[in-house]
């Protein structure tokens, strides 16, 4: 055999071996996806325990464990208004063993205002399912001189920059939704950011700050107990718990009629079979009356959207707040 033929033979053998190796690797990957999950799954909550995000995560964790055949363990990673936990979730291995609860704050408002978030909501996650959505509520301390949204606008316009509103922090949904409302109503308010929804709520209940834009689950008890006066709600229609409160759409402010969402995402590149398996298991869990009641008791509405629908919603919300940040020249400072 000539030298050239020997070289060709070795190259051919090497190529065939490589193809076999790649084939075995691909086959093994497909097998692993088909068997998924074979170990416990971490469901990361990018906020402190006790809030709406945490409640929803824990409502589905145990039944999801049964549906998937492996423990689903909730982990709280609080910090930077949800960005710290979302960043960790985005950097996880694309194997389905570290998932995260995604919210409007972590996938829309915060990354829209923070260029150093360390992830991009449209390219660094694999949307799996939107579990539920909650209305957002504009409320005031009972001493505030307004009993309706029209009176609220009149009072604020009579005293430009004279009133403060509390939020869970700069870049959070409460902050940017209030900025959106101001842009639609020609209002001028001062932002008072706090280190979480709890402290923000407390500041308004005690009268330290007179105005709050917050998730309904956080505010509902204070409203029903008379510690807050509700003025308008961001929801598709009026809700049974507060039938007297109009929606922003009714007030002619439909762009402000934006609900908060709570869904599951994985890191980018999560294989489609794994995405579908998690989606199907979660959708099944959301049919359980006990799970549904626990979630709905927070004021949330079950959604169970497809991965494609959830991806479209994340994109729409991010683009709204990205444009708002530009229009109002908002920064973290």
Automatic annotation (TrEMBL):
InterPro entries: BUG (IPR005064), Bug_dom1 (IPR042100), TAT_signal (IPR006311). It comes from the Bacteria. The keyword Signal applies. Coiled coil: none annotated. Pfam families: TctC. Keywords: Signal. Residues 1-31 form the signal peptide. The keyword Ligase does not apply. PANTHER family: BLR1237 PROTEIN (PTHR42928:SF5), TRICARBOXYLATE-BINDING PROTEIN (PTHR42928). Belongs to the UPF0065 (bug) family. This is ABC transporter substrate-binding protein. It comes from Vandammella animalimorsus. The lineage of its organism: Bacteria, Pseudomonadati, Pseudomonadota, Betaproteobacteria, Burkholderiales.
């Amino acid at each position: 055999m000539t030298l050239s033929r020997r070289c060709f033979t070795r190259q051919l053998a090497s190529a065939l071996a490589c193809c076999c190796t790649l084939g075995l690797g691909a086959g093994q990957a497909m097998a692993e996806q088909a068997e998924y999950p074979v170990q416990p799954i971490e469901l990361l909550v990018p906020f402190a325990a006790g809030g709406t995000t945490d409640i929803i995560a824990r409502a589905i964790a145990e039944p999801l464990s049964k549906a998937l055949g492996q423990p689903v363990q909730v982990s709280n990673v609080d910090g930077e208004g949800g960005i710290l936990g979302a960043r960790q979730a985005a950097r996880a291995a694309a194997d389905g063993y570290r998932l995260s609860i995604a919210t409007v704050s972590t996938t829309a408002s915060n990354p829209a205002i923070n260029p150093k978030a360390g992830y991009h909501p449209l390219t660094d996650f694999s949307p799996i399912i939107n579990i539920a959505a909650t209305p957002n509520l504009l409320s005031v301390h009972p001493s505030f001189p307004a009993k309706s949204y029209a009176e609220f606008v009149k009072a604020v316009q009579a005293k430009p920059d004279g009133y403060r509103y509390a939020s869970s922090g700069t870049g959070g949904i409460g902050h940017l939704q209030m900025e959106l409302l101001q842009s639609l109503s020609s209002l001028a308010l001062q932002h008072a950011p706090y280190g979480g929804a709890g402290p923000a709520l407390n500041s308004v209940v005690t009268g330290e700050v007179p105005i709050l834009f917050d998730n309904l689950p956080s505010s509902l008890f204070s409203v029903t107990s008379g510690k807050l006066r509700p003025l308008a709600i961001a929801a598709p229609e009026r809700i049974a718990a507060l039938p007297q409160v109009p929606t922003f759409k009714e007030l002619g402010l439909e762009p402000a009629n934006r609900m908060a969402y709570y869904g599951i995402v994985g890191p980018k590149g999560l294989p489609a079979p794994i995405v579908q398996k998690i989606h199907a298991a979660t959708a099944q869990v959301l049919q359980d009356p006990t799970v549904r009641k626990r979630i709905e008791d927070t004021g949330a509405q079950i959604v169970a959207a497809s991965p494609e629908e959830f991806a479209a919603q994340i994109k729409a919300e991010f683009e709204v707040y990205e444009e708002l940040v530009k229009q109002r020249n908002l920064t973290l400072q």
